[in-house]
Input
Amino acid sequence: MSTDTTPPPPSPEGDPLARQLLSHAQMISRLRRDLDELAHEAVDTAAGLAARIDDLETTGNTSSIAASSTAWCWRNLGPKGRDELWRQLTDWVGWLRARYPLARTIPTCWAEHPEVVEELTALWLAWQQAYEDNDPPLTAAADWHDRWLPGVLHRLQHGAFAIECSTQHRPRPAASYGPPTPDLGPDADLDPELASAGAGPSAPRAGA
Output
C-alpha cells in the first residue's frame, strides 16, 4: 500500500508570501468592485449631460431674449425688439402683481404711463440679474427686495412719478410730457395715443 508523501500547501497564516498574495487578491477584488461602481456612475453622468445638451439645443434657438441679463433701451429698439421686449415685460409685470400685493400700487393701466414702463423695465432687468444670471451674488435677491423693488414702489407713490390709478386710470395732462424728438427712428410706429407722451411700443396694454 503506497502512502502519499506530498507535503500539504503551506497555510497562509504560517507563510509570509502566501499572506501577501492573499492580501493582494483581496485588494484587486475591491478595486474591481470600485471600478464597476465608477463605470456605472460615469455612464449615468454622461447620460445626464447628454440630456442637458439636448435640452439646450432644443430650447437654444427659441429661448427668450431675457435668458441673460441685457440692458434694454426702448429708445433704441427696432420694431421686432420692441414687440419681444413688450411681450416679456407684460408677462413679468403680470407675474409680479400676482406674486406680491401690488395690484393697487402697480395698476392695470401701468402701460398707459411711459415713465412707469421705464421704471418696470429697469426693475425687471434687476430681477433678471438677481435670479437668472448664471452666477449671481448670494445677496442679489435680498438686494432686489431691499433696494430696487422698494425704490420703484416709492417713486410710483411719491414725487413726480406718482400715479393715482388704484381704482381707475387717470392720465397725466399732455403738457406733462414734451414732444418726442424727431430723431427717434424706432418710435416711428408708436401707438398714436402713446406717441404723444413719448411712451413705449405699440402693443396690447396690460388689463386691456
The first helix runs from residue 16 to 60. The CA atoms of residues 167 and 178 lie 27 Å apart. Residues 58-68, 184-188, 190-208 have pLDDT under 50 and may be disordered. The chain has five helices and no strands.
